[in-house]
Amino acid sequence: MRVVILGAGGHGLSLAYHLVKKGINDISMVEAKRINYGSSGRNAGRYRYHFYTKENVEFAKEGIPYLLKLCKDLPLNPLCMKTGYLWILDDEKSKDVISRAHSLWSSEGVGGKFLPCNDFDFLKIEEECYLAPQDGSFHHDYLSLGMYEAIKDHVKVIIGEAMRLKVSGGKIVGVEVNGSIIPADVVAVTLGAWTGHFMKRNGIEVPVEPEKKEIFVTEDLKFRVKPLTISKRIYFSHTLKGEIIGGVEDEVPRGFGELDISVERSLSFTRTLRSLVKGAEGIRILRGWSGYYEMTPDHSHIMGFSDSWPDGLYVDAGYSGHGMMFSPYSGKIMADLIADGVKNKFTKIFSPQRFEENKLIDERMVI
Ligand SMILES: Cc1cc2nc3c(=O)[nH]c(=O)nc-3n(C[C@H](O)[C@H](O)[C@H](O)COP(=O)(O)OP(=O)(O)OC[C@H]3O[C@@H](n4cnc5c(N)ncnc54)[C@H](O)[C@@H]3O)c2cc1C
C-alpha cells in the first residue's frame, strides 16, 4: 500500500508512526514548510477530559490515557504532567456552561469540584471556581518530534505544497507536489487549518477554517500556577521554567493572515494577569507567537472518509483548538482504518458526512 500523508504536524506524524508500527513500508509525508511548522509547534500543550459534549468527553476518555501512555514510549520525553484545569466562574455564561457540564462529567467518572477561588493561593479574587484535577500538560514539540524521531528512517519526507489530487476510475492514484505526481493508493489529509482550503481546491467541501490565536509567555515568576486557569478574558498556567504562558479569550475573524502577535492582545493579557495573580503585579511579556485554530461548524473534529469521495481519500482534521492532545489516539484510529479497514465507533460519530446528515456535535468548550 502506497500511503501519502499531507501535512507533517502532530496528526500526520501520528498516522505515520502508527502505520510504520503496522509494517506499512511505503509512506511519504508531504509538508509545505517544515516538520511541525503548523499549530502542532504553536500550541499551549494542555490536555483535558472536560468537554461540553458527551461525544468529545468519551473521545477524551480514550484519547488522553493513550497520550499519557505514548509519552512513556517515545524516544523524546513530552513531559506529560497532571496539573488540573481551573475555571474561574466570573460570568453567567461560564457558570451555566460548567454547571451543565458538571453533571455530564460526574456521570462519565471525570467530575470536578466547585470551590472558592481563594482556596488557590496564587489567585487574588473572590469568585467561585471549578477544579478539574484529571487534566494536565505536555510539551507539544517533544510529542510531535518524538513521533518523528521514532519513525524517521521509515518514511520519506517531501518538502512542497500538495496541490491536486489525482483520481482515476473513482479512486485516488496520486497527488501533485512540486509539479510532479506522487503515486498513491491512499492520500490522508492531515493539513490542520489548511484542510478546508486544500479540499476546496480539489472540489470537495470539508468545513475547516483557520482562526488565528496568539500565545504569550511572561518573564519568570516563582512556580505557583499549577492548573491551567481559565477566566472569561484569558487562560494561563505556569511553564516548568517558571514563566506564565497563556492567551486571550476573544473571537477573531476567520481566515489566513500574518502569523504575528499584537501589542493590544499582549497588553490585554498582562493587564488581566496582573489583576488575577498574586505577585504578578509588574509582570511583562518575554515572548509570544501565533497559530491557527482549525475550526469546524460544530467545533468538533472530522475523521475518516465520505462515501461521496474517491476511494482512498481520508481526512483527520478540524480539532477546533484542542487537537494536539488527541494526535496520538487519532493517528492510531486512522491507521487502523487505513491499513486494516477497522471502523472505530468514533469514525462514525466524527465522520465528515455528519454535516450533510445534520448530526452535529455541539462542542461549546473551545479554550
Ligand atoms: C495558540 C494555540 C493554542 C493551542 N493549544 C492547544 C492545547 O493546549 N492543547 C491541544 O490539544 N491543542 C491545542 N491547540 C490546537 C492544536 O495545536 C491543533 O489542534 C493541532 O496541532 C493540529 O495538528 P495538525 O497536525 O492537524 O495540524 P498542523 O500542526 O497545523 O499541521 C498541518 C501542516 O500542514 C502543512 N500544510 C499546509 N498546507 C499544506 C499543503 N498544501 N501541502 C503540504 N503541507 C501543507 C502545514 O505547514 C502544517 O505543518 C492550540 C492551537 C493554537 C494555535
UniProtKB/TrEMBL annotation:
Stored InterPro entries: FAD-dep_OxRdtase, FAD/NAD-bd_sf
Pfam families: DAO
GO molecular function list: oxidoreductase activity
Entry keyword set: Oxidoreductase
Cellular component aspect of the GO annotation: cytoplasm
Segments forming domain FAD dependent oxidoreductase: 2-337
Protein name: Glycine/D-amino acid oxidase, deaminating
Organism taxonomic ancestry: Archaea, Thermoproteota, Thermoprotei, Sulfolobales, Sulfolobaceae
